[in-house]
Specification:
This protein is mainly alpha-helical. The chain has 20 helices and no strands. About 80% of the residues lie in helices and about 0% in strands. Helix 3 packs antiparallel against helix 10 and helix 3 packs antiparallel against helix 18.
Length: about 475
């Protein structure tokens, strides 16, 4: 009895020791993740200035964002696997180093090609850094401390977008768009020095076997082909051979990726899990939700700056109501799902998002923020805020312990790839009116909002058709209460 009591006491001490991770560990990891997220929305605000400076036209502008989010999203699952096999600290430091070097290259870019390549480098660094940081949190914190740390990680994901538009607005207004990238350098230098002291050392040697390099390369190339085909469609034509070759080639590549993953011992993605309605349906709905949110940011930014002629700082401030609205939606989602499951709340959320996008589709050349932008922005933000969190819960609720990491990675991948596709599609439609710069861009931007409303309506119908009924889902949720989204 005495030995049993002593062993229990030792276990509690070990648990407490794990819980009391180094004091500055969580802040270091959260600031690193914030830096990764900021670089999407901050660049949104700077797009018109970047376009003018580097002489970008039409939907080529969108590659400033998609070259980052495409590489980040398509390599997230690979980054998570690499963190497990090669060492979490090693991957975090390597990712931080690559991200920092690429930030410097982005700031120094003298041409569009140089900027797109540097942004892809940032995406690679982010895909290594972000999953490693999340793995460090789950291994270094335990019990209630882990729950608090994961909640803080999730909050950074939500707040990052709002902080990004503010930072992007201030820096672009008072300095230059390049400062958005330069500012990463001192922050990253401090993080690097702090990480070397604070992040727990890897105890095992790197294990290179089981790293699915061919799978990662195949998925990334296929997705890049699809995105390239979409963004070139306005110049080459939607029915052109180039658009068909890129689109069909990319889809064939993704099919080859799925077949390949089914036949290897340590797949990046257990493709058969997509047959689960909550997982497969959830992945499609995440693509729709994230694509709509990324598109909402991009199109509103282009309208406010290019059509209404607002400055970057005023535009950044104009996004605060959207960030608050999406935050309220995200907060409400947990309560809605706990009571009503995912099917009806998600269908309703997408329907609300569609109403907001429809209102925004009425933007005019001589419009105003108060009547043309704000109402639709608030309604769409609320609906899509509910949608993103609800989709995440749909995908994660049925996960078994051994696949929680993989499904969490798939959820984040869906978010980034959805955003990439959304920006590619909506910027191409917006450019269809002949210009994306100047007052005449209003009609193209209006058409893009109308298509976004159609996507949200389709997603609402898919939610009802595909997702499990409330009673089945709530049973799953009770069995797996940890199924909260971590972006």
């Amino acid at each position: 009895m005495h030995h049993k009591h002593k062993r229990l006491k030792n276990e509690i001490e070990i648990e407490d020791a794990g819980s009391s991770a180094p004091r500055w560990l969580l802040p270091v990891l959260l600031v690193a993740q914030l830096m990764v997220i900021l670089d999407i929305t901050a660049v949104n605000i700077a797009l018109p200035h970047i376009a003018t400076d580097l002489q970008l036209s039409g939907s080529k502008i969108s590659w400033t964002i998609t070259s980052y989010s495409l590489i980040f999203g398509s390599l997230l699952l690979f980054g998570g696997r690499a963190a497990d096999l090669l060492g979490r600290r090693r991957m975090f430091l390597a990712g931080l180093t690559i991200f920092t070097a690429s930030s410097f290259a982005s700031a120094m870019a003298a041409s569009a090609t140089a900027l797109f390549a540097a942004r892809a480098g940032q995406g690679l660094g982010a895909a290594m850094l972000s999953p490693a940081a999340l793995s460090i949190i789950t291994s270094a914190f335990h019990g209630t401390q882990r729950a608090k740390a994961l909640a803080a990680w999730g909050a950074i994901g939500g707040a990052g977008a709002a902080i990004g538009v503010m930072v992007g607005g201030v820096l672009t207004q008072y300095t230059d768009w390049r400062t958005i990238f330069y500012v990463n350098l001192p922050v990253a230098a401090v993080l690097l020095l702090a990480s070397l002291k604070i992040v727990p050392a890897d105890t095992q040697k790197p294990r290179w076997r089981g790293l699915d390099l061919p799978g990662a390369a195949l998925a990334t190339t296929s997705l890049a082909s699809i995105v390239y085909g979409i963004t070139q469609a306005d110049s080459a034509g939607w029915t052109s051979i180039q658009t068909h070759v890129c689109g069909l080639g990319g889809l064939a590549g993704l099919a080859a990726f799925a077949i390949y993953e089914l036949h290897i011992d340590a797949p990046l993605l257990r493709v058969e899990r997509i047959a689960d309605r909550a997982v497969g349906g959830g992945l499609f709905l995440m693509l729709a939700a994230a694509g709509s949110i990324f598109g909402l940011f991009l199109l509103c930014s282009l309208y406010l700056q290019n059509v209404l002629g607002w400055g970057p700082l005023t535009t950044g401030l104009a996004f605060i109501p959207l960030a608050v609205s999406a935050g309220v939606g995200a907060h409400a989602a947990g309560h809605l799902v706990a009571k009503h499951g995912v099917r009806i709340p998600l269908a309703g959320a997408f329907a609300v998002g569609a109403i907001g996008m429809t209102l925004l589709s009425r933007v005019a050349e001589n419009g105003s923020y108060g009547s043309d932008v704000l109402p639709g922005m608030l309604i769409a933000g609320l609906g899509l805020g509910v949608a993103v969190v609800t989709v995440s819960m749909a995908m994660l609720a049925g996960s078994r312990a051994e696949e929680a990491g993989m499904l969490s990675g798939l959820n984040s991948t869906g978010h980034e790839i959805g955003g990439t596709l959304g920006i590619a599609i909506f910027s191409t439609i917006a450019a269809g009116s002949g210009t994306i710069l100047g007052a005449h861009a209003a009609s193209g931007i209006g058409h893009a909002f109308l298509v976004a409303a159609g996507v949200a309506t389709l997603a609402s119908l898919v939610s009802i058709a595909v997702l499990p009924r409330a009673r089945h889902f709530l049973l799953k949720l009770r069995l797996n209460p940890q199924a909260m989204p971590i972006h």
